[in-house]
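DATA SHEET
Item: assembly model
Revision: 1
Owner: S.N.
Input lines:
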Amino acid sequence: MTSIFAVLTALLLAPCEAAPAKDQCVICHATMGDAHQAILKSFSRDIHREVGLSCSSCHGGDSSSDDPGKAMSAEEGFIGAPTKAETPKFCGKCHSDPATMKKYNPSLPVDQEVKYFTSIHGKRLQAGDAKVAVCTNCHTAHSIRPAKDPSSTVYSKNIPQTCGKCHSDAKLMASYKLPADQVAKYTGSVHGRALLEKGDTAAPVCNTCHGNHGAVPPGVENIGHVCGMCHAHNEEFFEAGPMAKAWKKRKFHICATCHDHHDIKHPTSELLSTGDGICRKCHPSDSRQVKAAGIMKAKLDEISDSYLAAEKSIQAAEEKGLDMAEARDLWDGARMSLFQSKTSVHTFRPEKVAEAASPGIEATLKARRSADEAVREFGQRRVGLGIASLFLTLLALGLYLKVRDLESGQS
Amino acid sequence: MKTLYDAGLDWLDERLQVRKAMEWASHKSVPVHQGSFFYYAGGVCLFIFGLQVFTGILLLMYYRVGADSSYESVRYISSKVAYGWLIRSVHSWAANIMVLFVFIHMFSVFLMKAFRKPRELTWVTGCALLGLTMAFGFSGYLLPWNELAFFATKVGTDIIGQVPAAGPWLLKFVRGGEEVTGATLSRFFGLHVAVLPALLSLTVGIHLAFVQIQGMAHEKEAPKTMPFFPNFFLRDAVLWLLVLNAIAILAVFFPWELGRKADALASAPAGIKPEWYFLAQYQFLKLLPARILLIPGELWGIIVLNGAGVLWLLAPFWEAALPDSMKDGAVKLVGWGGIAGLAAMTLWGHLS
Amino acid sequence: MNRRQFINLILGGGALGCLASAVYPVLRYMMPPEQVEADPDSIKVGSTKDFPAGSSKIFKFGRKPVIVIRDLKGGFHALTATCTHLDCIVQYQKENDIVWCACHNGKYDLSGKNVSGPPPRPLDRFEVKVSGDEVAVVRTA
């Protein structure tokens, strides 16, 4: 997905020739007001500048002429600044043209403009709505950087902020009857925290699920596939399980019904609680299904409790200065079983959960036993020390008595 | 029994003149007075050095020097090898206790004015032994190649770079390159297990020979003396056993930690400090402003510390040149001042 | 027993006890542990018969798990078995001839290169040496 972004950046041009040695646009505009200078300054780091393009590559005109009248004349192909409605086509001059793009970055796709007009943004723009986002709203006009560049507005960590420029604007969103809390919700979600706090750039961000140029909300039909790109087993188990049919019939979101969207929280076993768990929304408390949920919850609690208890034991041993590398390895290995047992919940079959959890429970018990054993052995060191100290003291005492004995003889 | 003992002695005597040596040893005596207790400090240093050689050789059986193997092998020693934790902890604790006893020995000799003529050279070799012991501590600290050791070595060697003119060259020489790397580790290892043991053994030999030739100071004024052998020697042995027991207790109750592996790219952990016996100097350097009279503060610090070291080394010579009325007062002032200053700076460094 | 004999008894007993309490740990220390090296440069993983084409096994190389794969054409590959994303243990999928992490659907090719999904880095590679029918995994320089 990001590669598409990376691509976009290498373009944005018109006739696309290399910059002439003396660029009259720069010479003149550098002497003009702050706004002109700001554009020149920001453009100096723009990817298009880096590949050798200049003002006239996009805006047209004759950059070699020092006569403004001639340089910026229609005869010389001067276009000037595009309006919002014109922007996609303006960028598409190069970015939709495989022949041009091949010269700069052959691996970059050329479908951004086409995709854009399939997006909600694109459709509304065509319908005459000038408030929607066009290329420059996300990529900027003159500071365009590749998506893999951390300073880019479309670098994964910066995307929530970029989308949020409009989507967190409550007033603007109200005019579309849309909520404006998605970025806030996302920031607190398991994915937002992975990306923004832990720095895991593999964590999904707005465009991972919504697409970038063809931004639309994923529909009820395909949301499972979107989540399933990373959570493959969850999707697979769910689709093969007993709930899939009922979900389709009731037109439930395959994942979001239980896990929400935007503010997807790290799921806990409480979701399976027989009291107020998510299953109870449909199944009565004495049903077979809720009982199964209870059994699965108990298993999940067993493995996570065992996992935590093992960590506590290991920590206690490490605090004594003992090396718990092996137990740590076992414990680390159990984490996978912990993940898998949670994933197996999507089969809705308690025996599958138990099967996934059992190696983890076993490993954590083993880790815990070996940590406890090490602590016990640590205690036994003291017994050994006691014995050694006894002999050392005895010998010291013997020597002392010997000296006294000697000296009483000498005096 | 007796005859076998005598026969053995005779056999040795015919070849090595052992009886002569024993006869000589029996005349050696130790003065008995209020401060006699401090006479044992030097012996403890010698004992611990022996213990360090022994445990050091044991550690060498499993230790493998190298940026990829040092940490792993130390971890292996302390977790996999039976009693490896004990050997390693004893080696680490004994190193610290040895430094402590070297300091006790040094200050007690100074305050008892035992460095005076004709023992000037004994004092000088003693100062060399202090330097060697601290070099042992500094080089050995890096060998587990853990985070603390890595950064302590980085900071410690950085100071060398401040030496005018030769600084950058010296730094490169000590580190075996621009940075603290596996090359530094190899160098420190060679120093720790080959160069320093040889130098220290040689210097201890000379130091002890001087003591034997000159006898103990204050022997004449002391109200009483005791024979070195067996009276003093057996007392020595009692104390060695107690020290050994103390080290064993420390090793069992406070096993030396290994921490995390050194990572040159990781940021330094907060509150990184050198070992306690370098803390006073470290704190002193830290207190100095960046620049004093256009010269970097650290350079001043190095000049002051080295100046103090040279004065200390030359104590027997400048003290002898002082007027008689000032001698005792000067020793008292410098000795107690030194102890108080070092203790205060160490404590400050520890608390800050 | 007179005083002197008593003292000699204490001395002798103490000395013997001290000697024993020093010699015992030292002898135990000198006996090499089962896991011979702290950080081996190579490990033997069995005979070629243990690895039919299209199979894989996980071994411990020092502290790290390593996956040894025999692909469908009979070639051997050895890679670190911990996914570079969140440290799950990867597995070999012979149907697709790839290394796959079940946790977030990360995929690697048999040279360890991350080819799709969240993994940010390739898996580290090890060399596999086959001599006779003995298979060994060797750390690459």
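QC remark: The CA atoms of residues 51 and 94 of chain B lie 8 Å apart.
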